[in-house]
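Project standup — Tuesday

K.O.: blocked on the structure for the chain from last sprint. Re-posting the sequence here as requested.
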Amino acid sequence: VLAAPAAPIAVKPGESLYTAATGEFTSVPVPEGYMDPELRRSELGKIAGTARALNKQVDEVTTAYNKVLGLESQMRNKSRAAINAGIMNVARLISPGVVTDRDAAALSGAETSVGALFNFLQGKGVDVDQLVRIVDPANPETFNVDQLMNVAKSVTASSIPSLLTGIQENRVEAVQYQAPQAMMRSLFSEDSPRMKSLQEIMG
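H.V.: unblocked you, prediction finished:
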């Protein structure tokens, strides 16, 4: 005969409840520090995605830079293969993607063929080394190793601060959204091999 009691209604802090007996809406109190679980989950997903992207960029920079350093002695010993590999890795430091012949020529210190022609027409003579660099950027006899190493160091030095700033800002967001310790350790550990490699390059 008696009606079954109504099931309790699950509500979130901040939501309003309607009381039929009084015809009034009452607001559920919000505990201090409360965070909507769905919002937290969504934001932590975005933070993790950004952290992985930044870590990938760090890996690309450190790998390319360390490869150039490893090739330096071979480039100075006039190894054409090492020079080609060095050019490719420095080009990737500057802009990831396919390295064109023009990119290779620019990194070898060659001016454009038009520039060489204008110099000749202006009576400045012909710089044979420049012509060789235009036609054959990786020629061991004319390749400037010091110039390539300086470019690698400059590009790396300019990219690291922005990467570190991005990582720090992302870490602060993760703390604000109460990221689990496992997530903090896997994505933001300062003792990781990745961060140690970055610190060594900075040093």
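K.O.: great, moving the ticket to review. The beta strands are 16-19, 24-27. The radius of gyration is 30 Å.
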